[in-house]
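Input sequence (104 aa), recorded before submission:
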Amino acid sequence: MMTSVDTDLIRVLADPLRLRIVTLLAQETLCTTHLVEETGAKQTNLSNHLKVLREAGVVDTEPCGRFTYYRLKPDIIASLAGQFADLAEAARATAESDVKRSCP
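Predicted structure, token format:
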């Protein structure tokens, strides 16, 4: 069963812009300027979303002169994917065994 930490991570990734950012960062390390160009979001809005992703442990930052580059932390995504795979396996096992709780 998924814990509240996992639920928090799911909520973080459920936002469409944050999911877009994560998708872009899965392909390459990008700075805020690149992310603004790719997403069309305003810089302040994007910075707020990046802060949420940093605080959730989804991205790492790398200062480079006056720019900050963002990199996706693949272990976090892999861990969440593994938990969903476990959930899917449990659902398959339940479907195959036709387990039902009796109604009172």
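Checked by second reader. Residues 1-5 have pLDDT under 50 and may be disordered.
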